[in-house]
Design brief:
This protein is α+β, with helices and mostly antiparallel strands. About 25% of the residues lie in helices and about 30% in strands. The longest helix has about 35 residues, at about 1-35.
Length: about 130
């Protein structure tokens, strides 16, 4: 009996991680298949190559049409879709006015006095006349 115990324990140590890994892979494959079958026009997706696009047509079994830019539709294999992503939401921060506050640069003069640049013209320290 003791002779069979060690080989049995070794088989269990090897078999349990293999079974658990197989179950995890099957669940991941089922989730990916569910994602691919649930794609509908208007969904925002990311491909395996990192391309973000919107689904334009998902009626074919093996291919899907993705709109990568306004008016630019390309055909991809369904398996190339990695995941659904949240749609892009524009905020006020995305549209910044041209009249944004710009800090005026500070330029140091030769005399270590601080001279500020105003309205595009640099104000320099007065020139010393009469010295050569």
């Amino acid at each position: 009996m003791n002779q069979l115990l060690l080989p049995l324990l070794l088989m269990l140590v090897v078999a349990i991680p293999l079974v658990m890994g197989t179950r995890k892979q099957k669940k991941a494959a089922a989730a990916q298949q569910e994602l691919l079958s649930s794609l509908a026009p208007g969904d925002r997706v990311m491909t395996t190559s990192g391309l973000y696009a919107s689904v334009a047509d998902a009626s074919a079994d093996t291919t899907i049409d993705l709109e990568i830019a306004p008016g630019v539709v390309t055909t991809w294999l369904r398996q190339a879709v990695r995941e659904k992503v949240a749609p892009v939401v524009e905020t006020d921060e995305d549209t910044i006015d041209d009249e944004a506050v710009v800090e005026e640069p500070v330029v140091e003069s030769k005399d270590d006095e601080r001279v500020e640049e105003k309205s595009g013209a640099q104000i320099a320290p007065p020139l010393e006349h009469g010295k050569k």
